[in-house]
């Protein structure tokens, strides 16, 4: 992992805590949550206040959620909104916490100016006994206060003020007035400087969870589905189509029926040919390193020379992707590629909509040789696979990501996946173009197979 850290591809954009004041505030908050303090005088924190250095010191990377309990966070500054989240067990946690900071920024800025803010993220589910309990997670509620309880104290003063305004006899209530004065000394002027956190509840219709071997839950689609990374964990859940990542034909058909994915080659705003060329590069590099072939500087010319020596070991994805690249650059006949082709999931991307990022994460798990998309959309899986790669592949991937992603993250994401999506649900009825008659198509195994964006796969049985 040292290569990734050195290139800023792991633990990047963390907030540095190196002042005695911040360390003291963090320790005060940490003691309140865990009953422990750090002896470190300098460390880094993510958006939720988690520090990899403190995790290493404690020997517990989940120290902010003791004994697998509720998710807790520490805010020292609103600038944490730009930091990543290092250990999310739900894919939506970083986005929800970022929105919480942004939508309450003025109040949180005021609070963190004098104290650390500690909080918890509640999913409303007391116990996840099995995958069937996951649909109970539909919204996240955030509760936060400073270690000095400034929000609670402000709420007490606000309640007194409200009582004073409503009660016509309050002007003569010396006890109430004295209590208000004393409370104001603790909380300040809550009328001019309110500290109420108003935006604390966030709906989460779609998410990935690391629980139960990894599960995708997509509720915003017209046909809700749960897709399991571990086939042994697959459970029938009422109201959901349940699949595993091995069910490639049914997943492709489901994506088509619900207009959740589209071919890169005709996606709006996508420059398909360069994207396809890069995907071919990633696949060839993986194959060449696995076969022990010389890849030189890892450039395109060296990879093409290595491909010429692969013979029958040439990856099966190459033929389909090369055909698509030729079509994008030269035109001609539309390539016939369906979900039985190894190139299929490399050649599509999620459509705009609330589930876009989650669908792209699923596609990266179905086509993990595209290491750039895997890194961008599914870091937990990327880091796990990275540890098992040969050293030559680790070097190639680290250098490639530093060169082609890290220098312009947002630009790369936009080029690959399109602009940030709106929240409108895609309408399958309006997307009858290249997908064909997906619902009716069947493979020779009896599993659903979409007619596909490339040719007449359903009719000719290919």
TrEMBL record:
It holds the Pfam family DUF6638. It comes from the Bacteria. Residues 414-462 are annotated as: Disordered. InterPro entries: DUF6638. It comes from Paracoccus stylophorae. This is Uncharacterized protein.
């Amino acid at each position: 992992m040292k290569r990734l850290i050195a290139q800023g591809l792991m633990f990047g954009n963390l907030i540095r805590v190196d002042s005695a004041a911040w360390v003291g505030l963090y320790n005060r908050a940490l003691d309140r949550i865990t009953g422990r303090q750090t002896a470190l005088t300098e460390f880094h924190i993510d958006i939720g206040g988690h520090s990899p250095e403190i995790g290493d010191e404690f020997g517990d990377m989940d120290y902010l959620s003791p004994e697998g309990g509720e998710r807790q966070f520490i805010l020292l500054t609103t600038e944490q909104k730009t930091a990543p989240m290092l250990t999310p067990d739900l894919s939506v946690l970083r986005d929800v916490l970022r929105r919480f900071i942004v939508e309450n920024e003025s109040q949180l800025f005021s609070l963190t100016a004098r104290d650390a803010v500690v909080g918890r993220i509640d999913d409303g589910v007391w116990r996840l006994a099995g995958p069937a309990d996951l649909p109970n997670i539909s919204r996240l509620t955030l509760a936060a206060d400073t270690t000095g309880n400034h929000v609670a104290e402000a709420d007490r003063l606000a309640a007194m003020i409200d009582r004073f305004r409503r009660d016509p006899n309050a002007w003569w209530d010396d006890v109430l007035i004295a209590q208000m004065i004393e409370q104001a000394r603790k909380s300040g002027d809550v009328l001019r400087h309110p500290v109420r956190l108003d935006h604390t509840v966030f709906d989460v219709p779609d998410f990935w969870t690391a629980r139960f071997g990894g599960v995708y839950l997509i509720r915003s689609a017209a046909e809700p589905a749960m897709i399991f990374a571990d086939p042994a964990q697959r459970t029938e859940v009422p109201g959901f189509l349940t699949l595993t990542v091995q069910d490639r034909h049914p997943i492709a058909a489901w994506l088509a029926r619900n207009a959740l994915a589209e071919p890169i080659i005709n996606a709006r705003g996508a420059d398909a040919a360069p994207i396809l060329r890069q995907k071919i590069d990633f696949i060839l590099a993986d194959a060449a390193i696995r076969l022990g072939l010389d890849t030189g500087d890892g450039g395109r010319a060296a990879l093409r020379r290595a491909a010429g020596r692969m013979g029958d070991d040439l990856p099966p994805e190459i033929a389909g992707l090369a055909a698509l690249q030729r079509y994008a650059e030269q035109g001609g006949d539309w390539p016939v590629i369906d979900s039985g082709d190894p190139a299929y999931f490399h050649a599509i991307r999620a459509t705009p909509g609330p589930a876009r990022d989650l669908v792209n994460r699923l596609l990266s798990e179905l086509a993990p040789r595209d290491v750039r998309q895997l890194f961008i959309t599914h870091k937990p899986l990327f880091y796990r696979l990275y540890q098992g790669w040969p050293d030559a592949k680790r070097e190639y991937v680290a250098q490639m990501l530093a060169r082609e992603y890290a220098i312009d993250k947002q630009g790369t994401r936009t080029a690959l996946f399109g602009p940030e999506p709106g929240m409108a649900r895609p309408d399958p009825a309006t997307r009858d173009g290249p997908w064909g008659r997906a619902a009716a198509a069947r493979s020779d195994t009896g599993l659903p197979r979409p007619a596909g964006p490339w040719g007449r796969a359903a009719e000719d049985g290919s």
